[in-house]
Amino acid sequence: MTDRNDALNLDREDKLAPLRDEFRLREGLIYLDGNSLGPMQACVAQRVQQCLEKEWAQDLIASWNTAGWYRLPQTVGAKIASLVGAGADDVAVTDSTSVNLFKVLAAAISMCPDRRVIVSERSNFPTDLYIAEGLAEFAGKGHELRLIDSTDELAGAIDADVAAVMLTHVNYRTGEVHDMPDVTRRAHEAGAVMVWDLAHSAGALPVDLAGADADFAIGCGYKYLNGGPGAPAFVYVAPRLQADVSQPLSGWFGHRAPFEMKPSFEAATTIHRFLTGTPPVLSLVALDAALDIWDRVSMEEIREKSVKLCELFIELVETRCGGHGLSLASPRDTARRGSQVCFAHADAFPIMQALIARGVVGDFRAPDILRFGFAPLYVRFADVYDAVEHLRDILDTQEWRQERFMVKGAVT
Ligand SMILES: *Cc1c(COP(=O)(O)O)cnc(C)c1O
């Protein structure tokens, strides 16, 4: 890559390029933060408007049947299932990622009543660790978390005391990818249950939950799936487990027949068992509409472009921003990296603020990470080129040292 024209040529050859037109991204914005909050598509606004004006305002309660509200957790689940290698009936969309994790992890440890250890990583996303801590305490049987500090420690950590292995497939900070089939097999060989968090995987790279024989998985609706702020999350349960495992948030939507209004709980024998209460219909229709774009693209095409975008970014940063103290914090090996690239820098926070001020939106992750997400549905090769030029300029001129870039908001 020698100049911007090369990037423009890559965009001209890119078969996914027209998909960007579906997104309402303002002119001049370089959005490399779809792994925190995916942008909005025009069809989502239309669908939510229809739900408000027709389904809710006019048809009111009839819409539970006539507009398919009641089935949304399944119909939206089926769309996500096709992106993560799951059967259409094995994914439900409900609650938040954190709450779904509580449910599946509780189900997992209940399957191994004689074991007391939950294995995870210290570098896992905090909510995953917090939920596991809370569950361990609530279970009241002396469960403990065993946290590893690198993937190499994983094999040694999974022994006969382990009830569940709970890992995030793509690390939220570094983008490092676990070998899902291999880790799942190790967990099963040790007699443990495998729980995967797909927050940074669904819509980012091919995933084959069924092929890996995963037991449970959860994931996020508002990152690469573009479902909108606080979009409901998904939960996968292997079909071989659905009729038997129980989860503790046994609300009426998880009942075998919610509208029989029975005084005691009798769990559904399907993925419905992992629902709890009334689903958030407005958020579900937004996610439902956001997912239609995936009919027009395969995960293989997504991955191919994602790899090219990430490799271009690394090459340009390393050749153009040398001597400024940036070091690659993501795996260099493409096969071990998700759809994001991170660089570490002692002044990562003000540097990211300076980038954002120029319309290049990535994010800062404590303590020293500049994180850039590359969502192939709408990120262009020219965006990658321009983002690196802004970064180079900010570093060369030391623009980031300005006082205004030091101020931290509540959400970073
Ligand atoms: C984003 C993310 C979550 C988000 O959980 P919420 O309940 O939606 O706040 C959970 N786990 C991981 C690994 C994430 O990256």
Please provide a written account of the structure:
One of its GO terms (molecular function) is kynureninase activity. With 412 residues, this protein is an alpha/beta fold. It has two domains: 4-16 and 298-406, Alpha-Beta Complex (Aspartate Aminotransferase, domain 1), CATH 3.90.1150; 47-295, Type I PLP-dependent aspartate aminotransferase-like (Major domain) (Aspartate Aminotransferase, domain 2), CATH 3.40.640. The chain is built from 13 helices and 13 strands. It has helices at residues 4-13, 42-56, 63-66, 72-81, 97-110, 126-139, 154-157, 180-189, 209-212, 281-290, 299-320, 348-357, 381-397, and strands at residues 30-31, 91-94, 117-121, 144-148, 162-168, 193-197, 216-219, 233-237, 327-328, 340-344, 360-361, 363-365, 369-373. Strands 2-8-7-6-5-3-4 form a seven-stranded mixed β-sheet, with helices on both faces. The chain has a four-stranded antiparallel β-sheet with strand order 9-10-13-12. It has a two-stranded parallel ribbon with strand order 1-11. Strand 5 (162-168), helix 8 (180-189) and strand 6 form a beta-alpha-beta unit. The longest helix has 22 residues, at 299-320. The radius of gyration is 22 Å and the shape is globular. The two termini are 32 Å apart. The mean pLDDT is 97. The structure holds pyridoxal-5'-phosphate.
